[in-house]
Records
---
Amino acid sequence: MRRSSLFLLALCAGALSLQAAPRVIRGRVHTAAGQTFAPGAVVVDEGKIAWVGPLADLPDVGDAPVLDLADVQVTPGLIDAAVPAGDGSVEASSEVVPHLKLADALSLSGAIWGRLAAQGVTTVYVTSNPASVIGSQGALVGTGREPALLAHPGDVKLTLSNEAWRRGQRNGRPFRDSAGMTARRPNTRMGLIWVLREALMDAQRGVETPAAQALGATLAGQHGLRVHARQRHDLETALRLADEFGIKKLCFEEATEAYHCLDLLRGRDVEVIFGPMFMEPLGSQARTGEAEHPCLKTPLLLEQAQIPFCLTATDRLDEGLAEQAMWAMRYGLEFDAALRAVTQSPARVLGILDRTGTLEVGKQADLVVWSGQPFAATSKPLLVLRGGRAIYRDAEQVDDASWDTDAAAGEAPEGPEQPRRQNF
Amino acid sequence: MRTLLLSCFAALLAPASAQNLVITNATIPDAPGKSAVLVAGGKIVQLAEGPPRVPGRLVKLDAQGATLVAGRIDAWAEVGGNSGLGTALDAFDPYDRDFLRRAYSQGVTALCLTPNHARDGINGLAAVIRLLPEAAKPEDRVVSDASALCAGLGVGEGALTRAQRWGELRESFAEAKRYREAWLDYEEELAEYVEKLPATAAVDSGTKPAAEAPKKRGKPEKKAAPAKDETKKDEPKAPKQPPRDRGKDAMVRVLAREIPLRLHVERAADVINALELAEAFDLRLVLEGGREAYLAARELAGADVAVVLGPAIPATVTGAQPDEYARGESAPRSGAGWQALVPLRDAEDGAARLDAAGVTLAVGSGSLDASPQVALNAGLYAAGGLAPEQAEAAVTRTAAEVLGVGAELGRVAQGYRADLVLLDARGGVVATVVDGRLVYRKDAP
Amino acid sequence: MTLRLLSALVLGAAALAGAQDVAVQGGLVLAGRGQEPLTGGGVVVRDGKVVTLSHEFPDGLRVDRYPGAVITPGFVDLRTHLGGLGDLTEAAEAFALDVDALDAVDPKSREFAQALRAGITSCAVVPGDAAVFAGRGGLLKTAGGARLEGAALAKLSLTADVLRDDRAPTSAVMAYSELRARLEAGHQDGEDAFAAFARGSIPGLCTVDDAGHARRMLELEQALGLRLILHLDPRPEPEFGRLKLAGQPVVLGPYDLDADPLTLALPQQLAAQRAELCFTSAAPLRDPRAQRVSALLAVGAGLDPDVALDALTGAPARALGLGDRIGTLAAGADGDLAVWSAHPLEAGARLLAVYVDGRRVYRRPASGGAQ
């Protein structure tokens, strides 16, 4: 309770610093709510979208500054619903930690938030690292050099992918050789399922541990339940467990082999946060060996099967969310569907569609001004707004004076420049 | 203050090329009675009692009573790494803007770059550079590309290893001496040989004065001999050229007293050993570090050996030390550290005692990263008892002299480089001038 | 009869060793924040306490004269392990609820004398950074290692140092979660150091290496009424400069001569937000003089020297709730003073003498020679 009021305070403080005067952005406007205005315009006022529509109907806004660049296109800010927290966030003293909150150790430093903003991503859900069987609660973060903790929705995450048991022998931080309490179960898939089932049973029985209490609240429907699974039989196991414990709604993360069980998924109340798509598995995907048979047409198949889905880049920042949409389009998804899959749909999954996710009057001014066709390999974000503030700005194209800019937002997207040190 | 800022602004707007600058209303300890300095072509051309009347365009800097001193020189800017043969110059990045900004803001305008002292043996050549904001050629920054040959005894090793290191160092100088003698003999024989050649050939080689090379770098006449071999019958045989060794060439320069040997020592016992080494091989010697040197102050003064002091306050008490061999608390390199856990006998007033005994003192920072704070470091020696004027000289005049660049840097005097610093009453840097150009002013936006 | 004689002797001895009456005169007295600098006067100390700053001294009072010298309060260092018998970092448990660093301190250690020669007259000796709640520390006078009764502070840490593989927590998430849960649970009637900190009766020095942790600790401080002293890890962290820290005690340092510009800019940034800066030497891991050197480096990077002096004297004392007793030369404060040859924030200033409770406990040797 106390914490949520603190978040409100933080949000209010954020609102106070917004610029007062309305500003106009012209260009081809994709609302992600079914409309495209070409040419169109968006009026941003007090951090919100005051007006959006065809340029011809633009109301009189007096001498409000106008951003009028040739060939630009405007979309809502991108939202990534499943960016995993780093390995350092894994609490290894227990494999079941749904009572912990990632927000409690969120680092506000580091270049990553600025890099996300530079890629057009305005909001991310930081999800628990899959090395825990039942991980910590995630956090919703607004990106930019000055990131903002927006909320922690309290969703609990079960891991069925093999990180949780492959790293079972040293389930803590990887690359450490020390044995200790981290040499623990599970170290097989069946052990993993047993730990899951045991925790869920404890939660049903109302055992008086913080973990069981937190999980119980989730089973009672107070929070969402996420499942990290890649392979087909893990997806199926998750659905089986859901039936066993009376869980109505599930949200899958990654779901690499969803294309194998479209029929099964179609009949259920599920959301799929699909991704990342790639030619070569890298990083954790490569380590798991579970993502060797990705189907690049999966987004198209999910769309055709009318299974609600959105796209995630997970921690593959080198192939960010815009690139994920590009891959989806390259393998058959229409632009409008791809745009929805990185804006409206993730906002719905995260329960923030009333605030963001589309360009509609009254919503937060979270938007991206693209230099050309969004997601095309030749396009880049020129201006990224979150709540009306410029969290990224291409300094060559958009001048500082016209936007209320975050400190250092108008720099190269490589991240904050560190003091150069002699390296001898 | 406003006027100072305004004229500074003008200076920054002025073109980057060498400009004429006049600093007025300054207090100049180096030149009592004078208050103005005229700079042209990057050098101090005139010191005057009042504002000099000079025709032509001038950038004016009203010091408003601030103290004008020579730019600070870090006499010990260690850049790490060592090749044995190389020069520390090659390891410095003159385009590191952040570093230059830090250095200017503390009035540091020149550095003596030295190779890493932690390794034993000959570590390479020290170089003196000026921190020019821009240079047409990289060489313009270099005041001396061979200020000294640096050597160390290694750190993190035990006392027995230390004895061995001394033996090795003596042996390498003995070898260098033999090498030098071999070359001197060769030069001599070559000269005799050339003399005995028939007149025609003698005219050929007469263009190359035989006396040029031997004492200096030992550089030989290139291929004087083989050409003559064909004409030999009963003529004298050409002498055989000894093999060339680049590493020993640098040591030959030390043996020829052309450049000093700069030896890193901290302990009094090592100071005495160093003095003996210098005497045995007739070397010019400069010591680096010297935290126990005050215990051998009389000997140092007697031998007229200067000391370049490092950090006044060791970075850590339990961690790495300038001479880890002393404490041994960090992991020793060779596993022999356990036998040598003798702490250094630091004394807060060690520098003052060296000075009182008449030892020439320069102060360095001990590492390139700390170079910008070298004046603060000298100040800490003053806090420990060294006379404040001596502390200031140890990063200006004396430093330049110890580094062998005393005719160019380190003083506010006619003909010297216009690397200057204006200080406020508390010793804070108000403005820094390098090569006649204003490169820093306080309260910059 | 004998008894009376004895007690008289004992009383006399106590008066001789303890309280002292003296006037210390110099060229300038910088008595601390809120006090006008006094030129040409001195500090009158009776019974070990400052009575007044004055140009005239009562008849019969001993007057120590230091012509041209600058007199300041003795320095206060909030974070030291001085006198520690071995390591003061107990890491077996993440919550060492009632470990007391003073239980492992040798009051006769030479390290206190070294600190004294750096101008430090009072130092907090606290446990290390390897536990989330590492226990409590106390305040000692460096002259003789006498404890200041009633002065205690808790030591907390939210850094990578607290994470270990052989006990919980292994992650920062758990470290903070458990700390918050324990603090929120409240320990109103507990006797241990944690309870005392949780109910706000003693301050807590919390080391953080990330701006996120700093913000969360500040939230907790506000929500729960804690008395928090933030210690910002001396490694460069650009986000520290963006923290909102008005009125917040913040411990900085120690800084080395090779500290990078980002680190050295921080004191000025925080001072501009009116944070209560305090510098530490982390002695004996560093030379105690590192406290003044940290302040000197910050001044070189633009910090106001008066703020820097306060950060060595008054601010750390106020952070401990002892602002009227140490770190100041206001009337009634302890007669702890340092006599310098120049303003102590000039690099070349020499420490000429140190007084603790009105007794001269250090005097610089006449010239050049050894002590």
---
Amino acid sequence: MTRSRRFKLQLFRITIFIVLGAFFLVPIGAMLEFSTRGNAINAPRNLDAWKNIVQTPELVSAITASLELAVITCLAMLVLLLPTMVWVRLRFPQLNRAIEFICLIPLTVPAIALVVGMVPIYRWININLSDSILTLAFAYLILVLPYSYRALDAGLSAIDLKTLSEAARSLGARWGTVMLRVVVPNMSSAIVNASLISVALVLGEFTFANLLAYENLQVAINYVSLVDAGTSIAVAVAALLFAFALLMILSFVGRPPVPVAKAEDAEFRVSQTVGLSGGLIGRAGR
Amino acid sequence: MTAAGSTAIAAAGRPIAGSRRLSLSWVGLVPFFIYTGLFLFLPTLIIVVGSLTTKDGAFTTANFSGIAQSYLVKAFGASIVISAASAAVGAVGGALLAYAVATGNPRGVLRRTVTSASGVFAQFGGVTLAFAFIATVGYTGVVYLFLKDHGIDFYPKGVWLYDLPGLILIYTYFQIPLMLIVFLPALDGIRPQWREATESLGGGTWHYWRYVAGPLLAPSFLGCTLLLFANSFSAYATAAALITQGGVIVPLQIANLLTSETGRAAPGLAKALALAMIVVVLVVTTLYTLLQRRTSQWVR
Amino acid sequence: MTTGASAAGRGVEVRLEDLQRRYGAATALAGLTLTLAPGELVALLGPSGCGKTTALRLLAGLEEPDSGKVVVDGVDVTNVPANKRDIGMVFQAYSLFPHMTAIRNVEFGMQLHDVGSAERRKRAGDMLELVGLSAHAYKYAHQMSGGQQQRVALARALAIEPKVLLLDEPLSALDAKVRSRLRDEIRRVQLEVGTTTLFVTHDQEEALAIADRVGVMNAGRLEQLGPPTTIYSRPATPFVAEFVGLTNRLAGVVKDGEVDVRGARLPLVKPDTPNGPAIALVRPEAVSLVVDGDTVPSPLVGTVIATAFLGATSRITVDMGDGTVLAQMPTSEAGALTAGTRVKLALRKDPVLIARDESKPTEA
């Protein structure tokens, strides 16, 4: 590339990064500023709003509930999805397309629409099973399906499942052993990917919780804002930082330890997942 | 057994020794199908059936004609306008950002940071996002107060943040990162040799974009814009946090119908609206997939 | 296939004068001077990082030199951008525009030169016929094999009747069989059209097979420039001797204009080489073997380790005790030389080159 063109390009890049960087970082900064404002006009800054988080029982219980939901959903996802995907690959490869299609359906169904159909189901659940907020895990698992599927699929594609499982079986391993001690260790990064995505999604979810009348983290933030804007913004910032930390971990962990050619393909698909996940993840939370 | 299951049985060509083993294999798939059947297909079924029946169970299309009421039509219009506008702005902004990223070091820190940050910002939605903007450009927001102190008041006729323009602005906050994420692969697929080949054949920057890069990227760009549209159309939480009263957009209308007395009296309407939303998003997403497939044929 | 001057006589003279290019601390080109005669095909040969691709890109105008001049047809084009230099270029990979058919690809350059559409189509058709791909005119890149894509790329580059044709390792990404066929194709077309051509490659067989002259490059410098036969039989530096063809390194002593290798005295390429211990670089085909039945001891004896059958010739690896030597001879003479046979070596009295570095004495 000629020098003048390279120069113009760098100028363009710097401009874009500065302008968009400002657009994205200023609101974050504003949130920090807002949440540390003093009580009177010129009062000094303080962390009262932040301290208030732990002093508001509603918030604490909502945070706890969301964290519990995140863990439950993540475990449920692994227990349901991974064995099914392995089973399909080994025994019913012709069903691969069908499973993929089913798992990707939630991408095209807006959460706000799906929840309309969930209302009667949850009415039944509340009456006959439990009215705990943790029953939301059933619904969250659906929301999490597409992203987890993509992440696990990338991981499964990178290993030779058939050979590994046959080798293990021929040595006498039962299916439980095959799953726990052969498949899982070889897909550790894909599993971590899928888990982190699930956790991030559950923590950011608002639509289902709000319209099914549960109080999770996001609903609590919304509710508290009517009373104490500063505190609710403090929680929002905390949640945001947590999500950022999760996705940063994701971008470093999500690298499968396999030979180069396959790794590139797998990495491409994982990055697509991260991308897609990052992209559409908050659909329920938007 | 689902339709997929019975097809699979018919298509299971490979003979498996012993029919008992065959049926045992099927057990492995049961949990998944039961679960998705109950929590994915059943709600959808409820929506479809509910939108086509009256409260007493008779078939009707009244729910759909109910959508034609003026306030709902207005909500649809607003949804479409906001989605289209935020998709357009997000697409252009995101494409420019993607170009800035793609022309840098593919393994560099900048690229990884921007991509990860985009992952975060694209998921940064709903309640937290609304509050971030209120804190920034709300009536007591940092930027608004700062500019007001320096003579610039951008709410001359009232605060528009809580109305259509505000939603469009806020939506771009997650549209731009989403565009980066879904459009970047297409840009990565553009080989430097094509630019150099164009130059060697006598073409300049304009020729390159007009005849080579433009046509190559157009399907993907269009597809990604459609994806942004679908994304914006489906968004609920941000508006819910921002607009406490009123049903400006379709998701808010649905929420109203689910939580209000009048809404509960006409359950079919909510379902009809939900179905309408599903159809719109489905159509748009299908177009996106087709366009992406076109691109990947060339650019990989 | 080096039949000398072009037929069509379209070619122009190209001069690269003392081109230098650095990337940060690394020197890509340390002063390259090279003149291509009209219609000539010069191959730049060397390992990766030697600067050959940089030289090509400087000639193309895709990079700017730190200093030096590029002169095409008497005109100094050093500061002229690539798209105004009237060059044709074929890349190693991803040559073709994927969204255009073959014939559209070929037409594209002409379209950029404002050639009318009817004329474009006709010329494109002629060019595709020249490279033998008329039947594939309406195919896309992903529907063609690598070799076919490169041929279309060649047609596209020549369609605009450029002053210079630049080929950047065009065969490196192809299968071996396709490679040898295609390189002959390229040479045939080049001779027919007569365009001055610069061909960059790391494959010495390619370079020797089709070039009028070969320039061997190493670490940003041109080590030797000359006809393929000269490069091969009279290498000017140890690098050239070892990069092009196979070479045996035999320990010996230089004395008075000759090198003594265990009793055999060989003339030197450079008779003024100072006396002292040295490594003589001897080609395998200069080594002949005779089954050792003699009772007269000779210092040049060894045992056959392996025989590689290469068709018309065979390559024999001989263990000399302190290293191995490769000998190459017609297969008909190699019959008795099975593994384990003791043989006597005779070295043909070709002038040899001397290397002075401290590596192992006898190594092939």
